[in-house]
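Friendly challenge for the regulars: who can give me the structure tokens for this chain first? No prize, just bragging rights.
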Amino acid sequence: MAASRVAAAYSSAAALQEQQLFDLAIAEWRALIAASDAAAAGDAAGGAAAEGAIVGRARYNLGVCLFQTADYAAAATQFAAVADAEAFPKLAEPALANLGLARFNLARGREAEPQRAAELYRGAADALQQLLSRYPQSPQAPLAWYYRGESAAALAQHDEAVAAFSQLVQRHPESPFTVRGRIGVATASLALGRADAAEQAISPLLDTASVLDTAAPMQQIPPALRREAFRLRGEARLAAERYADAASDFARVAAPADDATDGPRPAGQDEAQQRQAYCLYRAGKYRAAADVYDLLAAGWPESEFAQGAGLSAAKCLMAAGENAAAAGRLLGIWRANPAADNLAAAHWLARASVQAGTRPADAPADANAAAAIANNRKRLEAAVAAVDEAIAIAARQPRRPVDSQNAAAVDRAGERRAWPAELALDRGDLLYNLPDKRRQAAEAYAQAAAQHPGTPPGALARRRAAQAMLELGENERAAALATAALTADAEAGAGQADMLQVLAAAEQAAGNTDAAIAALRRLTTEHADDARLGAWAQRLAVCLAASAESDSEAGEPLW
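First reply, four minutes later:
Bragging rights claimed.
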């Protein structure tokens, strides 16, 4: 191919590329390369060398055009062809940079094929490492360090990612890539469980005085990257259990963007608001957490992160001691959706209603107290009705074997609970707090224990049934339930002491002094560190005295 024709073809293709008419430029670059390859065998050695350099540049430019049209596989082929430093000394450096980028982008598009994606990420890392090794002072070095780190992160090689991003930050502090490099260090450090290192990497981006130890103000960081920086620092502080500080960072992410428009809101704001609420809760700022959950539910009604936000807000109110308000909310949540995926609302309604009715023993008996008692009764009765409805709904769900893997249903707030057993226990608790329903409560507890053996709520219901039966004077049933609890719940700790106490009291009330003594002896020996030890010892002495007196009257030896 004549040199003049090569030059003309090159100029034509280059002009099309300059005008960003990439498809047309691709066709001309390919035609030039094909014609040159066909004519290469007949050219003189000098001409072939000169033309070879032109064809090398044509291949490089073809790769650039293919890259611009997102044909990364074809682009990578062209860049690889001119990445040889000996054959193409002036092209190898940019070709290696672009080869790494092409392979990286190709890997991103193949993430549904994990093995192929991993191979491409490794290929990207290899090309970029070659660039950094051969040309450490290359203008492309910041880009290479950054995508070297991104490739390592994609391969879950987090230590290598930290190393690459750190090199970028240390060697090129003024590069535009360095902001992303610090974000990369923080992200990889969090993946490694190094919260302190993550915060140390990200905090300079959020310093109001400077960024990257230069005079660049924080406001010069693009808003999306600034939000990501606050998010990462929030995650680091959350991991370090600095909940209040983490909540502050998440609030910055969830706040309206500085560049807010009528278009879509920035991605991640709903998740950040959920994290903010959670951190406020963990920081003990329960009322503030409830308010943020309310904002989440109102502002992002379709978000997956808002599902259960109303329930979470009510639970925060409970933690803040606002149980009556929480019960009102929970009743509304249940009535809005009395369904199997909302059983948690009925459960927490029961808990809030019980706690809202607790009054100090020395509370004055005035008109306000009477009104409070009346309101409490209405609240408890409404909760009983809701729990009865929930129990009926739960009973219609497919039954599963009781085991640690599948006995618990997953409600929309993400809790794992054996809801039928929980609700049965809730019903007993609600009835117990209605003074004229104590016998019904005792029977409800006994029924819950019988219907849900082998579950923690069933075990607790059995213990409460024993105590309630004792209060009602049903000593024989109280003793039987306590004995069953002692047998079934041998590892229950404090529950064992409670049941031995019930058993002793029931046997003593029934006149079975020897059985009462046996239970009290177990209490005083097996639970000697319990604060009730003195009372048990006193009762044991009374029973021993009664037993001795009985033996004396029968003419038998005392010991």
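DSSP finds 25 helices and two strands in the chain. The first helix runs from residue 3 to 18. Your move, everyone else.
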